[in-house]
Design brief:
Helix content is 75%, strand content 0%. It is mainly alpha-helical. α5 packs antiparallel against α8. The protein has 2 domains: 1-191, Up-down Bundle (Growth Hormone, Chain: A), CATH 1.20.1250; 203-417, Growth Hormone, Chain: A.
Amino acid sequence: MQNSHVKTRLIVLSFLQFAIWGAYLTSMGRYLGGAGLGTSVGWFYAVQGVVSIFMPAIIGIIADRWVPAQRMLAFCHVMAAVFMGITGYMGMTKGAAVAFDDLFWTYTVAVAFYMPTLALSNSVSYTALNKAGLDTVKAFPPIRVFGTVGFIVSMLLVDYTGFQNNYNQFFASAAWGVVLAVYSLTLPMCPVNKGGEKKSLAAAFGLDAFKLFSKKRMAIFFIFSMLLGAALQVSNGYANMFIESFGGMQEYAGTFAVEHTNMLISLSQMSETLCILLIPFFLSRFGIKNVMLIAMLAWVLRFGFFAVGDPGVPGVFLFVLSMIVYGVAFDFFNISGSLFVDKEVPESMRSSAQGLFMLMTNGLGASIGVIAAQEVVNHYTANFTDFAGWPNAWYIFAGYALVIAVLFAIVFKEKKA
């Protein structure tokens, strides 16, 4: 394939990959809250982290040794789409009587097959770019940006159609998944390694990277990665239903923010796309410690603006600021942290170390964070449609991020250049 054709094919792959996620990730809490399952929202977001602890490693081993990555990608998306469709079907048939068990277990299977595809789609892209003789470092980031575009487009479609309020968001995700499953089979063949280098089971699962905890500086970094990772899914899980709660107040009922919350939240992903471009400048000027501190303080502002904002004027502009700082909070932490790991560990351990970073942040950190956040929200909001207790919850989340930032500033020592 010609280089431009390869890039176009991979742009479509990236777009569809994240459109699947964007259909429900930011709006699922709103549907669950309206269905009477608001007290269990945290479990639906936490299970993504739980399955991320082991499923990507298992699927990755299969793709490395037996099944080409593009076929494994198609299989995982078919399975995820089937079970996400079943989740939507259960929501449709049960209606107002839907219970936790009606949705949770099929949803869990769906995300168990979806989460490994985040790494598989990268593998397929890298293989295609290498076959085309392109530099992955230069060629892949502009392609990956279209993943965020896909996420945003899917969010906006779910908002425009009204699916953010009901089970149809699961059907939308399943539909995107079927399209990508079929499309994956048309992508370039990826090699498998049936023989060759033999790895221990620990190495295959990336567990050898835990040796890095023997180094004090890396241990501190990974522990704080887990602690800050606790903030990653909190606003995804609760921001939509929080803003919706203002609809019960006469002065805010029918406002744009209440009626089109997903559209408002999509500003977070737009900010994320732009903030990626700022990372090289900030890293070269301020170093990894200060960039990570900026990310932590951005999380303080993300939650703090939610606590003091409202859907009216001028309060809605505080919500907009919360969406804007999200790009800094997310990118400066995730991408800068990944670059730090890449520079600090030996080449032979880079893949395992990146897996450990993802495990500590999106696995353990995110899972623990949303479960803890669920307890906080349940305590302060006896009824999820009431506004009164929400600011207290957001202040607690902001205070947590501030404490992490202060401790990180004191404990973590940056290596002198």
